[in-house]
Every structure is written in C-alpha cells, then in structure tokens.
Fold Carbohydrate-binding module family 96 domain-containing protein.
Amino acid sequence: MNRTTKIICALLSTLTIPACAAGDLSTENFNGEDGVVLSHGPLAQAEQALSTCVDVQRGLFGTVQDAYIAELAPTYNTGSYYVLYTGLSSGEDKRSVLQFDLGFIPADSVIDSATLNISQIYKASNSTVDVHRITAAWSENTVTWNNISSSFDPALAGTINATSGSGVRSVDLTALAQGWVDGDYGNHGVLLKEPLTNKTEFRSSENTTLANRPSLRVCYTAPTCSDGIQNQGETGVDCGGPCSPCASAGVSITAPGEAYGHHGACSGFNGCGDAATCALWACNINGYSNLVSYGAQGPCTGFNNCHLFNSQGSVQYNWGNWCAVSGVSEIVCSN
C-alpha cells in the first residue's frame, strides 16, 4: 500500500480486508494517491468449540418419558410398565412412545450426532421398527392410544433393525434432534411402530437395571463468542443464543473522528478511492450490502461514484475528517 486515500477504521468487529492486510496497520497520518490503512483494533473471532457428548437416560442424566399404547385398550395408560411393545401383541396393535428432553443444549448448537439406543428383549425373527416424530405433547402418566396414536409425522425419522435375538438396537436421529434444537418443531419425542405381522419388545425406563433403559446419546457443538456482534466475517456463531444479543443496527466500521477520505484511486471500485467507496468494499467482502451513515439528518444510503454522502445534499470531496461531514456521526455496514 502507498499513498493518499486514507480510512482509519476503529474496528468494533472483525472486518478482514485483504487489500489492507499487507499494508501498514498503524494510525499514523500520511498523504498519497491510493491505499487504505487500518488501525490496530480489537480483532474478535468466534469459533466452534469441541463437541460435547451426553447420554440422556433416566437415572443417569436428563428427563426421559416412555410408555406403550394399545389399540384395544384405548384409554389405558402404561407409563409405569417395564416393557415397550411394537407390532401385533396379544391380538392388538401396540406402539411405543419415547421422549428425551434436550433443553440443556444451547441455542444455535450444531448436533453432530444423536443416536437412540434401546434394549430389545429376545425375539425369534427379524423385523423393522419404524420411528416417527410425534407432533403433539403428551405425558408418561396420561398418554393413551386415544390421545397420541395418530399424532405423528407420517414421514420416517429412521428405522430400527430389530434382528432376531436380544441386545441393544440403535437408530440415527441426528436430523430430528437438530430440528428440535433449532425450534423447527416441538420436541415431543418419537413413536415406534411396525407392521402387524411382527412383534418386538423393548425394555422401558422402568427397568431396574440402568444400562437396560432407553437412552439418547447426543453429541453437539455449542457456539462460543468473544465480541457479541454479528459481523459475518467470523467463523461460527457469535451473537444470539447463549452469546450477547446481535447488534440490530449493523456493524460499525468507523467511530467519530477516525475516518478520512480523498477523491483518489481505490482499484476496482467505481474508479475512485473516496472513503465511502473503500468502506463499502469493506462491507461487501464481509457479507454486508449497505454502507449507512447515521447522524442528525438521519440515515442515508446511495453513494454515487466518487461522491461522499451526496444524499446529504451536496457533493463532498472530503480531504479531512470523514465523520465531520454535516450530520454524520457513525458509519455502519448493514443488510
């Protein structure tokens, strides 16, 4: 970088500007014809933390509900029973419902994996148990065939390969768990059902052996943040959820008294290097669409070629303090 056009940006957030990266990042004033200079500011960066894995299982961690429902006993509740049934059992259709509370997972987390593990009691033949997302709230102590048997998404969330014999059977519910955490739909758990040509029995959360109880092993990556501002040039999530609220007005790239511009050369941007053009470029490469001034005359947009703040009423070829232009108090990037 060499002479004139100067913008000293007191960065309130991370704006990575390649054209400035190789230049002098000092706050010293100098004159010349082209170039942009940034001050050393606090560079904030958000990144994803390591994945955390938790087994949600009654008696171990978290809250779990489960029960089975029976077509020929439509008002009967089995929340305290130690077995979960699917398929044709004792001449009737039986289904099972399970719910694992994921409220402990921070908002905006990424679900790396979620696996339902359920202990199958011995059976002689193979079958496939379908897993569906439940669409209505229910309670283990009151759930019955009448109030939940049809309240599920017909689309499959997954299938359990219930092979002959006994042991733990598993199903991947990662996409479903992500939807629960994102709030795409309420977490009312899952319903298990299979064709009435087979029967499968699983151990419920009432089983006296903890290891035999159903569990949902979920691994997630929670967002971490350092500056609380949504500046889009960073990796990961750095505002909202467990972090500080997102700045609603945009990302400030100047502070009063710290921006200077000149009608010079700034390669590739409308053939000019005024502060507005170079700053708008800084916004654009970081994912923002507008450069907006805020001040006594209200916000303005629409920087026309080499004109600084022409919507303020006059063309400004500003050799001095950019923020000293009439009515301007702050320059921000926004969408």
